[in-house]
Structures
1.
Amino acid sequence: MRAAFSLMALLSLALPAAADEMWDTQFGRMLWETDIGDTAVFVLDSPDQPRLRAFIQGLALDVAGGRGAYSGFWTIEGGEQDCPMQMTDPMGTKTNAWGQLQITFVGTGFPSDWAGLSGSCFETPDQPISGVAVTGQ
């Protein structure tokens, strides 16, 4: 019983930290919005551009550290890009603006910067993307 309580206490401390993570990207400030199973959901919600979400598979399991490389995909709600197929993302958004991504966390501390590549539609990710951790906010 004591071990289960200790594990629950550790998890309760680790999980809110993930939701507070933010990064400055070339697109604006990105926030860890929520988790869906083992997938972390990042959101870029700027009043002057459509909502972009990134779905990072496996990252939600690594909230206590030990982060590495991850793959996933992104969607843009109401985006102008015209992929040949419409996608419905896990949040229920239907869009023709989507693509693949790969990110790697560049540090072991919390929070940590990340760098990676993104691609449109079915294209192999080849466009550089990066996030610099926002601290003290």
Note: Residues 2-19 form the longest helix (18 residues).
2.
Amino acid sequence: GKIALKAFLKEGYTVDNSSRDHFWIADEPKDLGGSDRGPKPIELLLSSLASCKLITMQMYASRKGWDIGEVDIELEILDVKETTIIEKKLTFRNELDEKQRQRLIEISGRCPVAKMLKQSVEFKIVQCGL
């Protein structure tokens, strides 16, 4: 279906967001003049990207019959010059062979959010823990 979002600026920098039947807040920290009632917009972007990567890996693993168990992902924005660099650290909790891990890392880079951002963001994989 159609992907749509509505956002409304409230008092200060607080923004009410909604999509389908879901509601959440974005805000700025107090030291930047906000009320700190929710994540910063850039944190929400990283959350969208991380969630998309994890869900995409799980969908792929399910199709392959792999039990990947819990997977942790950490994303950090390193540099914002001509190209934004996002560092990705994956930790697989289940025993997976090297081929499976490499395939899942590759698949995570093909998620819809990453594809959408690819034009303006460069992704860098630093470390993938077990």
Note: The beta strands are 6-9, 15-19, 22-26, 71-80, 84-92, 121-129.
3.
Amino acid sequence: MARVVLPSSLTQLFPGAVREVDVDAATVRGVIDELDIRWPGMRNRICASGPLIREHIRIFVDATQATLDTPVDPASEVVVIPALSGGSGKV
């Protein structure tokens, strides 16, 4: 099963959600489906309508940025990262 790593900012929204979980899925879309089964509503936090990965979320499979159709192998690591924003850019 693929290892999925979720940000704490996401797991805090779902009681019982954990930062690392093993998921059996063939694609990133399947990973998100499995996460949504375990924690209903998680798909809506990761995906926008279309469906598309939300603009402020990045998903990586084995350190390569992924789309919903990116294949996931049983030995893959899938990492969900919220994009960083804010600040004035001044030092």
Note: The first strand starts at residue 2 and ends at 5.
4.
Amino acid sequence: MRESQLAQYIVDWLIEDGWEVYKEVCLGKWSHGAPRADIVARRGNLTWVVETKQSMCLALLDQALRIYRHYPAHYVS
């Protein structure tokens, strides 16, 4: 399964669960150098940032940590 297929599966699931979903979202005031999330979902006052990857690695954990530090999300996956 490609990363884009996985992302679409997650987007469909989130929408079905009542989340408002945005793809490829820049998470900074300015787009230059700001982290970009594969998926940002909102439901009420909750925000969920989702990175879709095919495998777990330290770079992915670093990316999730940078997102968590710069963007006020309730959940980062």
Note: The longest strand covers residues 36-43.
